[in-house]
Write a structure and sequence with these properties.
By secondary structure, this protein is of the alpha/beta class. It has 13 helices and 17 strands. The chain folds into three domains: about 100 residues, DNA Primase, Chain A (Alpha-Beta Complex), CATH 3.90.580.10; about 90 residues, DNA primase, catalytic core, N-terminal domain (DNA primase DNAg catalytic core, N-terminal domain, Alpha-Beta Complex); about 120 residues, Dna Topoisomerase Vi A Subunit, Chain: A, domain 2, CATH 3.40.1360. The structure holds zinc ion.
Amino acid sequence: MTDTQRLKEHCDLRRLVEQDLGTAPLRGGRAYLWKCPFHHEHKGFSLAVWANGYRCFGACDTSGDALDWLTNYRRLSFVEALRVLGERVENIAPVERKCLKSPSEPPEWDWQHRAERIVSQAEETLWSEVGEPALNYLTGRGLTTRTIRAARLGYVPGDFRSWRVIEGMDVPCGITIPWFAADALWAVKVRRAYGTPKYQQIKGGNVNGLYGADGMADRDVALFCEGEFDTLLARQEAGNLVAPVTLSSATAILSSRWYAELTHCHTVLVAYDRDAAGEKGANRLLSLSPRFRPIQVPQGKDITEFYLNGGDIYAWIADALKEKQSDLEEPQYAP
Ligand SMILES: [Zn+2]
């Protein structure tokens, strides 16, 4: 058992919530009931809290455990929340410290401004004759021209080893993938035609963004993919079911800023590649909260491979959510 699990089991969440919302106005069995603060409930008492977890049975359907309560309601950082649960921070197992990064900020406005101009130029190039090979590569990955345009993908021509200076910035040659989120441009990743690493980025970008984060605003299920192209494909095929996002690799770490934005998602599916790095990254996310659930493509190593071999992404995700729905018939946190 990890230290975090032990701490959560020691804590009676009903006492913690009483500190925040006062004595429970209603009780039902072992659950205490409150007006749900997450959707500012006026009528009714939809928030049920057990010793080991909470769930809103009303409009927002949010749920979680003591750690979620502290990070989502009290807006504490992961480490602060552990402190409240009685952990001495120096005792936190190193692996758990690695689950969340401290909040991050987008690059300076000047960088964003220049990078945005590079993104626009690269977009123009992609749709010109020069961009044809790059465009073929993208459509060959199953992306439609509509998806490519909406994602504002672009192309900086040149040998895969070369970098060019544009707008006074060092730009690698290849397919440009702008990371827009929360009204900012966080980074511009570049998929090079060959060579390792496959991806570079315009110097000065912040890779602690969350690609696709804006899509979470009107979805209550998020889907963590390993890379940007898988994310775009999942959005294209199943964007009305889930908000696909990516940290850009299985090894990247979620920052507490984006963890907070996931608050209203009752389910966070993690669809990492079927390899060692994917498994490790997925486990790190799964340790954050019971709302995170693993999901694997039925065939192939990743979402793109599954799709290119004829797989139906929509049906796959819809099925996974149906399974989740039947789990709900018995409340997850019922005693
Ligand atoms: Zn609610």
